[in-house]
């Protein structure tokens, strides 16, 4: 066997989110969350941007989170498959509304707490480390309706209570935590990232950055509580990463690319370095934004920084100051990006750039000098299930192989990476499109975009391939 470049206890595995996998959206006392109001189809994107018509699901629309892949009832079967593949870690999220159905109830919901107890026990039984995201794109709807979600400072207290409740309950089971999934998503899909719904004429930027401040304070409070309550745990932040390339070497393009990256780094700069960077202060001034802070916020942020930098990487981005180039945007990307003529794209228009992964990892490590954890990476593609139950997903193997190889190069560059959990090791609902057709898994789930199918699980070709990758600690790709 060839020599591995990956550290001995490298956390190989996969990542899912409650709202995209569990289903059972009102079972066990769970309350409605923001994602439960996202149908598939044309309305979805509008709502994700913050234009919500109704606080209850609309008759006639299809809501993919309501059943998802029924992980809530099938997690034992699914975890057995992950264990068979040799997973060392599984990243999951806790649905806030399972623990506090309204988000701010007097007492937590025991059935919800028990569900995650069972889930973590099952993982630990198989020697799989649970890696837990506290908030992955779902806010209890009650908090959106009654408080305006993260625009309201009160959410900080509700979140702190929620975080402390789960730390207390799972302190002996969970040692890796993350506060907000892709915290920078708040600027791109405000309803998804922070449950924000806008009224006509509102200054969206002002609301978004105020909500960002609330999340950053809430994140610091969670870090503080985690360190106090579970001293042997590690808690990280989570960035939707992907370096922005300047389209040309014209200084204007280079500066523009730097600013685009800073739009994302802003969050991590606060979570990891503990203070608002100078460029953010200037940005607020230039845009006439005023961020309301309470006394003690700055000290809190400074004193409670994260232990590691979790990030997702799917694609690099590119930008230009030339209006003509700028008009050629990639399709289907949540992050605005101009087309990169040197790179291929996925069926959903996401740029495929393995080398960009290495660059991004280096960039993050150079900036923060803290361990990195790759908590999402993968290829969303259409898979065909053959009549005999096989899926030949060589294209997925190809994508992952190249990305893992570049991650190995980053490690050789000196970047400290503690683990790699590829996105959607079993097919789940797509966050951006709500489709089932956009699959990431090593395990195929028989379900289509309209909710038809047996939900039966099938191993794809990539299943055995990834198993070997883990077995060889990344030496055999
Ligand atoms: C990240 C999210 O943005 O990308 C996941 O954290 C999401 O929730 C993943 O599923 C892939 O995006 P999509 O839209 O293809 O599901």
From TrEMBL:
<dbReference type="InterPro" id="IPR017853">
    <property type="entry name" value="GH"/>
</dbReference>
<dbReference type="InterPro" id="IPR033132">
    <property type="entry name" value="GH_1_N_CS"/>
</dbReference>
<keyword id="KW-0326">Glycosidase</keyword>
<keyword id="KW-0378">Hydrolase</keyword>
<dbReference type="Pfam" id="PF00232">
    <property type="entry name" value="Glyco_hydro_1"/>
</dbReference>
<dbReference type="InterPro" id="IPR001360">
    <property type="entry name" value="Glyco_hydro_1"/>
</dbReference>
<protein>
    <submittedName>
        <fullName>6-phospho-beta-glucosidase</fullName>
        <ecNumber>3.2.1.86</ecNumber>
    </submittedName>
</protein>
<dbReference type="InterPro" id="IPR018120">
    <property type="entry name" value="Glyco_hydro_1_AS"/>
</dbReference>
<comment type="similarity">
    <text>Belongs to the glycosyl hydrolase 1 family.</text>
</comment>
<feature type="active site" description="Nucleophile">
    <location>
        <position position="376"/>
    </location>
</feature>
<dbReference type="GO" id="GO:0008706">
    <property type="term" value="F:6-phospho-beta-glucosidase activity"/>
</dbReference>
